[in-house]
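Long-time lurker. I teach an intro course on protein structure, and each term I like to show students one example going from raw sequence to a predicted 3D structure in token notation. This year I'd like something fresh instead of my usual example. Would anyone be willing to generate the tokens for the chain below so I can use it in lecture? Attribution to the forum is fine with me.
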Amino acid sequence: DVAAAREPKTAELKGWFEKNKAMFAQPSRVSFRHLYFSPDRRGNHARDDAATALARLAGQPQDAKLAATLADPFMFQDFYRDRAPDYLGKEFGPQFAQTVAKLAPGSWQGPIESGFGWHLVFIDTVIPGRLPAFEEIEPDVKTAWLREQKALAWAKAYEEMRAKYTVLLPAPPSSAEVKQSTGNSGRR
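-- Reply from a regular --
Happy to contribute to a lecture. Here you go:
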């Protein structure tokens, strides 16, 4: 590996990091509880039932016993800790993830639709996204830089190899030749 043979200087890595910061951005994360309202159990009333439950929960703490009595059982978790939007998008759907990312902590909110049905959500904590300082992630930056250098070296090597060869393809057969080779000459 020619790319791995050269050790990058810190200044070189810092410069590369500045150009590629987006690769290292850490997304926001959210911890939340939710109550689920199933369309399978409630039919077209699932959203309305969630809205009615939200009104009953106004001013209630997240762990109010009343909350559990209002909702349907959910097949996965009732509490999610430190989840990024991409995880929530895969688990619940992108619309749910986008909506939850905009909620403020400290109260029951909703109804919010997911791929499963309707939910009321209580945001416990929001950890804002951030870009770590170079010093925090220097080993990761070095790994990414080496990976890029290796990919560039491979691409250059392949390009140099291809430049040494000429590929000639035979002309496509005529329609008469195709009929003869497949036995469709029209004779019976």
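Some talking points for your students: The longest helix spans residues 134-163. The mean pLDDT is 89.
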